[in-house]
Amino acid sequence: MRFITLFLIVFFLISCAAHQEGIIQQADRSYIMFTGNVKEVTVQIDDENPFQLEGEKRKTLYQVRPGKHTVKAFRRSELIVKRLLFLDNQMTMEVLIP
After folding, report:
1. Which of 6, 23, 22, 3 is nearest to 14 (CA)?
2. Are strands 41-45 and 67-75 parallel, antiparallel or unpaired?
3. Whole-angstrom distance, CA of residue 73 vs CA of residue 53
4. Angle at 32 between CA 30 and CA 37, to 5 degrees
5. Measuring CA to CA, how many Å separate 12 from each of 19, 24, 88?
């Protein structure tokens, strides 16, 4: 009986030492998803450098920080979309390109 009690005490102490608590916080990031006719479309987000949407994909994700963003889309230097987006953490906002 003494052996079983000693074993249970040692087992309890070992299992308590292996237990960990903590908080897992997701990284602050949001996404803008461009859909529609993305062929020959150049996008500018805020005051960053413009970039070309890839090929003829129907959906293109672009990672940004949460907050307020101005999105402009151009096709052959003509402004076709201008949106003001407010993105929360881990949020994806869709921008339809006509």
Report:
1. 6
2. antiparallel
3. 10
4. 165
5. 11, 26, 44
3-state secondary structure of 8: helix
Q: How far apart are CA 98 and CA 84, in angstroms?
A: 17
What is the fold, at CATH topology level, of the domain defined by 27-97? Immunoglobulin-like (2.60.40)
Residue 51 is classified by DSSP as E
Decide if 95 contacts 60 (C-beta within 8 A): no
33 or 18: which carries more pLDDT confidence? 33
* pLDDT band at residue 20 under the 50/70/90 scheme: low
More confident call, 57 vs 71: 71
Q: How far apart are CA 47 and CA 68, in angstroms?
A: 12
Domain ranges of the chain: 27-97
CA nearest 30: which of 71, 59, 63? 63
